[in-house]
Amino acid sequence: xxxxxxxxxxxxxxxxxxxxxxxxxxxxxxxxxxxxxxxxxxxxxxxxxxxxxxxxxxxxxxxxxxxxxxxxxxxxxxxxxxxxxxxxxxxxxxxxxxxxxxxxxxxxxxxxxxxxxxxxxxxxxxxxxxxxxxxxxxxxxxxxxxxxxxxxxxxxxxxxxxxxxxxxxxxxxxxxxxxxxxxxxxxxxxxxxxxxxxxxxxxxxxxxxxxxxxxxxxxxxxxxxxxxxxxxxxxxxxxxxxxxxxxxxxxxxxxxxxxxxxxxxxxxxxxxxxxxxxxxxxxxxxxxxxxxxxxxxxxxxxxxxxxxxxxxxxxxxxxxxxxxxxxxxxxxxxxxxxxxxxxxxxxxxxxxxxxxxxxxxxxxxxxxxxxxxxxxxxxxxxxxxxxxxxxxxxxxxxxxxxxxxxxxxxxxxxxxxxxxxxxxxxxxxxxxxxxxxxxxxxxxxxxxxxxxxxxxxxxxxxxxxxxxxxxxxxxxxxxxxxxxxxxxxxxxxxxxxxxxxxxxxxxxxxxxxxxxxxxxxxxxxxxxxxxx
Length: 532
Prior knowledge:
There is one protein chain. The protein is built from 21 helices and four strands. The protein is an all-alpha fold. The chain starts with a strand and ends with a helix. The chain crosses the membrane at residues 12-33, 39-56, 68-89, 116-144, 156-177, 189-210, 222-244, 250-268, 298-317, 350-371, 391-409, 421-443, 512-531. GO terms for molecular function: lactate transmembrane transporter activity; solute:proton symporter activity. It is a multi-pass membrane protein.
């Protein structure tokens, strides 16, 4: 059995620096050499394999097992979820219902500064709360493109907007898992996140308006930004403080949309701001019943996923009468063959849940939409599935490469070495604590996996320096949300959704400043809180 070592070079800081080389190379390939995401990912993966093999002395079988787990996870559940979500969106467009959706949005406001608040911020948060796993980025970025936003801008806007909701996606799973792996009360972690993230969340709508139209946009549309921000933060913060994370995104996003609808019935900007290439805002008026039908794919999606998230239903798929549809596969080369630096034996499994997967819930929403939409024939249904697979194929390959890299980094001990080196900073550690979360999400693309990976480390460090464990685990989560802006997995999904496969570097360059800027804010804010 092979045991991880965090200082194979005789120095933890030096080992951690070498462990970070694949990340640096990936960013350099994208930002400096302007390679495609896939080429950058493959180069970084090769470097990661060499680092694991030569520096961490990881057995070839363990490297192969780590890569296999990354590949399988990319295909199921991640690819399954995003393909189903984009298929649902494409059906909406194919049926002609999106013309009604576009008109209904324009009837609220033809101003793109307001539309970005409505779609990227509020509706995106709603979808994050319902489904997570890149669904809001895929759907909202595509919606913005249909509304006339340039593809790169649409992708970047949705990535930045997701910071407000990313910590509580899929009915609060990141917080629930973070509390579970650190033996912490969910309420304590939820309240820590209110203190940590709400100030940044409050600023996100203003940042989005500024990204669309600069200072002039803030002067002219500060009111909808303020209303949506205030409603969102009050609802999200209140639910987190008094109830928990489960409905924090869903309710906040929904009520933020309602507040914007209400505001735009009594207020409109003096100047309508639209990109030069944007189509003319539709003046067509549609009956309320037609608008409701047009939006039906999305509330069907919401209803099915909420049903799927009920513990009793999930229990049916995992342990009940339908438990046979869930299979857990131990990963060869990892399970029982690797011991972590902390001394625990690795139990790496890939879970294949045919009925319990979120993707299956979205598939059911697709089928309900199909059977309730006479305009779509069976041949068109499968044409749109082929179209979704074709559009997302390169993104799925990139996600697989990145998850292979991430798993090799994690199981070789490289990720832990980076986190442990930062944790050795002592009393000033809170200044760097969000960076650990940022690294975790950049590698894995998931706040859940980030908390699983680094949550216990944050608790141990907090106890060692006399800081609040819930605050530092919250910081791990908050830092991770800022990394979702440039996580290769998120960027791959956004690129696939807006038709920019092979041009991921453009999205990365447009997003990096915002991710690092928000990370710095979180670092300083965390340090201030630990000093109070």
